[in-house]
Amino acid sequence: MEDEGKLTSGITLAHDVNGKNKSAYEMRLKFLRDQLSNLRSERRAGLEEGLKKGREEERKKILCNMAAKGMKIMDIVGLTEEVQKLLEE
């Protein structure tokens, strides 16, 4: 009978330890998931910023090429305004 009491208290102790471990595990898992979410969000923002910068550089390059080919500045301005309106639609 005395052994049963030790066994029961041992099971209770093991349950408490497992409960603490489970709680710590779940907290760590939540932390890691939050970190992953933050990394994905930052990566997405970085990609968007890079694409925006690339488009701006390409526009500048095109405008410079148009000017180098002898197009008048007012013609370039008119074309870029027309293209901008089309892109906004």
The helical percent reads over 70%
- The average pLDDT score comes to 80
Structural class estimated from helices and strands: mainly alpha
User: What percent of residues are in strands?
Assistant: under 5%
The general outline is: rod-shaped
Q: Number of helical segments?
A: 2
Head-to-tail CA distance between termini: 84 Å
Q: Give the domain tally.
A: 1
Listing every helix as H and every strand as E from the N terminus to the C terminus, the arrangement reads: HH
Low-confidence residue ranges: none
Radius of gyration: 32 Å
Most strands sheet: none
Q: Count the E strands.
A: 0
Keywords: Coiled coil
Protein name: Transposase/invertase (TIGR01784 family)
Kindly describe this structure.
It is built from two helices and no strands. The protein has one domain. The model has no long low-confidence stretch (mean pLDDT 80). It has helices at 2-68, 73-88. The protein is rod-shaped and about 80 Å long. The chain is mostly helical. This is Transposase/invertase (TIGR01784 family). Residues 22-49 form a coiled coil. It comes from Thermolongibacillus altinsuensis. Keywords: Coiled coil.
Topology of this protein?
Elements: H1 2-68, H2 73-88
Summarize the structure.
The chain has 89 residues and is an all-alpha fold.
List key phrases describing it.
89 residues; mainly alpha; 2 helices; rod-shaped
